[in-house]
Each structure stands twice: as C-alpha cells, then as structure tokens.
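Journal club side-thread
Mid-discussion, someone asked how the predicted structure for our own chain would compare to the paper's figures. Pasting it here so we can look after the session.
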Amino acid sequence: MGRFARNMMARASGSSVALSKLWPGRTDRLIIAPHDLRTADATRAAEIYAGRFVFAGKIVTCHGRSIFDLEPPSEDWEVALLGFGWLRHLRAADTALTRANARALVDDWLSNSGNKRPIGRRADVLSRRVISLLSQAPLVLGDTDSKFYRRYLRGLAREIRYLRFAMLDMPDGVPRLQVLIALCYASLCLAN
C-alpha cells in the first residue's frame, strides 16, 4: 500500500511538472535583454520606415498597408520577416522615430490576424522571433506605456508556450537546438 501511494505521488508530481513546462506562470516583467551579436545597418532603418522591406533578394513595399497583410514574394522572404531579425537595424539607428516605428510594427504583429501564418509557427522561425523580441526589447519597450508593455509580454509568453509545445515531438537536430536556445533566452530574460 505504501509503494502504491509513493507511485501515485510521483506520477501526480511528475504530471504537474510536465504541465508547468507547457504553461508557465504569468510573465510580469523583463529582467534583462541580451545583446544581439549580429551586425546591423542603420541605413536599412530608413528603408523600413519608408515601408520597403528587403529580404532574401526580394523587395516588398507596403504603400501604407500592414506588412503582415501583404502576400510574401517567397518563403525565404517570409521567414526573414516573421523572424523579426530586422529589428536590429532599427535599433542601430537609435532615434525616437525608429523606436516608434519598431513599436508600431510589433504592435501591428501583436494585433494582426496575419500572425497565424503556417511559416510563422515553424520552430526555426518562432525561435528566431523569440530571440529577436527579447534582444530588441529595449528598442520596442523604451518610452512606452504599461498597457503596451503588458501586451508585449503576453504576446511573448504566447510564443514561448508554442515553442514549448512544439519541442515535445521534435526530433534531435538543428531546429530542436534553436528551440532550446530560445527557451534558455526566455528563462534568463523573463520573470516567472
């Protein structure tokens, strides 16, 4: 009877640990923002502000529409857009205009139904996006109100949950390593 009780306690505690890995506590603040080690070009910030997004050898011009509503010219272009690595160029320019532009683009992503694209849910793209959003948080969150700050953290927590869920049935290899790196970033950078 004692062994049965110990087994049941172990199973109950094991399942709660497994559930807590998928559904972490509420993220209430960003503790640190890691440095993005990739090179950035401040001149590309002007192109992004003008609504010209150049990725993978293709150019898409917004003409006042949301970049996330437009049809991507190629899969590589869409991977670059949804990975949010381009935020580093806005941070390199480091002006009030580029901070406002970055905040507007991220806000557009958070409120846009276009963020349900299948490529945006791929583990490699999702990992890159989480790392970029964490690394560029000072750019996006500087001079912002608490409402946007909470929305940003909720959106980031949602992305992290997707990553944790995607990792459950992912085979070993580069995509799994990318997911683990993004999850390590999240664990170090976010409270709870």
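Post-session note: The longest strand covers residues 52-55.
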